[in-house]
Amino acid sequence: MTIAESTEISLSEAVGQEPDTAGAPDECAELLPQTRRALLHRLAVGQAEGRAPSMTGAVVRGGRAVWTGARGSVEGEVPHGDVQYRIGSLTKTFVAVLVLRLRDEGLLRLSDPVGAHLADTPVPDATIAQLLSHSAGLAAEPRGPWWERTAGELRPEPADLFDERPQRHPAGRRHHYSNVGYALLGALVERLRGGVPWGEVLRREVLAPLGMSRTTLSPERPYANGWAVHPWADALLPEPAADTGLMGPAGQLWSTLQDLCRWAAFLLRGDGRVLGTASLAELRTPAVPPENGAWDAGYGLGVQLLRREGRLLVGHHGSMPGFLAALWADVEEDVAAVVLTNCTSGPAAGAVATDLTGIVIAHEPRISEPWRPLPGPLDPELLALTGPWYWGANPHALRLRAERGLELTPLSGAGRASRFRAEKDGTWTGLDGYYAGETLRVGRDRDGAVSHLDLGTFVFTREPYEPSAPVPGGVDPDGWRV
For 332-338, what is the mean pLDDT? Predict the structure, then answer.
């Protein structure tokens, strides 16, 4: 194999169109030369130290690719942004989006047992949410030979995926990664879409709207061949690329840098044609406690979660024989990175991807959006709710946000903060923190004037322990002492 020189792929190759920065903020322009060199250096080190036949990488910011690079070769040429690689468990992020689309359409609830929708399932009581978050306690792998290297025909029915002990742990108690669980989710999608294969559902409902025409179940040229690298010699061995059949939803997909840049932009910013912003945020919310007791890694609904240097990253690793992949996104910084390589083991694709995001953030931190006033006219009664409120003696500030939303923030440095979504009945629902899902109501006196806020039974008053407000337990009639 002739190893080609490394290169930076042009942005037009990476995103399928010419870069257009006219009228865009500076942060959407191409990266500075020193940043690009640092990114290419990290990719080159990852490829060389991992002894990968090829490695490609990309950074997405502001909804578009701002840098792509490649190192090594595919069939003697530096791989470009349209070369397919197998992406392994990144497939699970796509399947999770399909399931949440079904939920949003009212065809299922995440709390439903999978047996309510799939007959003859060996684990009928496992809920859909547990399958999505790998907390159903299911076996990690299907029975039979190594499924990633054998034909799916060996397991033609869902029952063929399980041995005599389908659950290894009690459901809902811990995170236990299960490829089999995602096979069931793929079957669930097919069942609720009238028997249409999950791959066709994915193409129609997700890939086509996002312009991801090069993400497929089977490889389509140009694509990279998968290799194993000898541990003690610089020699290669071809890896098989089997159609895994029912196990496909766990890791079958092939994709390109170009397509995965679009997928990263979707995970960062969403797209109403595919999934609403609330459901996308739900996808990124931790669903089960971390295994080691320290919150440095977790799992949402179909996405992995990492904490690196105080930043929260969402995405997924992927591996199949001959391939490794990683996609990590920092939603707060609006930056993501993708890394693809055609090697079974060795390259630290995930570490390279997280480092690429870190390099961009360190060299060129995100420029904040300009402050703008809320669109008017403002509701004077809503505006009158803002300002200081007290839970007991603890001061809080209530601020008005877009779309009649509210934000409660403790002013003393200790307390519970939360954002609230306005409801049609005049209440608000907590979106995060301790008050997520709880109801905020405005309390009024006999004359209709605002007297207090009721937040999940906690009473907030305009003054500390205001005697005229309905403080639970009452207020001592002698008042404050000195």
Answer: 96
pLDDT confidence tier of residue 288, bands split at 50, 70 and 90: confident
CA-CA distance, 255 to 206, in Å (whole number)? 14
* DSSP conformation letters of 124-150: TT-BHHHHHTT-S-B-SS-SSS-GGGS
Pick the range with the lowest mean pLDDT from 189-193, 284-288, 348-352: 284-288
* 153: three-class secondary structure by DSSP: helix
Interacting residues of 111 by C-beta distance below 8 A, sequence separation 6+: 127, 128, 129
Bridge partner list, 320? 323
Per-residue pLDDT tens over the stretch 365-380 = 998 889 999 998 999 9
Q: Please report where in the chains the tokens 């949440």 appear, as a residue.
A: 100
Q: At what angle do helices 257-269 and 91-104 cross, to 10 degrees?
A: 40
CA angle, 19 then 22 then 24, to 5°:
95
HSE at residue 34, side-chain half, CA atoms within 13 A, is 3
CA triple 218-241-53, angle to 5 deg: 105
The one-letter code for the residue type at 397 is A
- Paired strand residues for 65: 60
Q: How far apart are CA 27 and CA 18, in angstroms?
A: 17
- Largest interatomic CA distance in the chain: 88
174-188 tens-digit pLDDT: 889 999 999 999 999
DSSP 8-state secondary structure symbol assigned to residue 271: B
Query: pTM value?
Result: 0.87
Q: Which of 246, 241, 120, 119 is nearest to 181 (CA)?
A: 246
How far apart CA 423 and CA 428 sit, in angstroms, is 5
Question: How far from 85 is each of 263, 342, 427, CA to CA, in Å?
Answer: 15, 7, 49
Q: Give the angle subtended at the CA of 21 by the CAs of 20 and 24, to the nearest 5°.
A: 135
User: What number of other Cβ atoms are within 10 A of residue 409's Cβ?
Assistant: 14
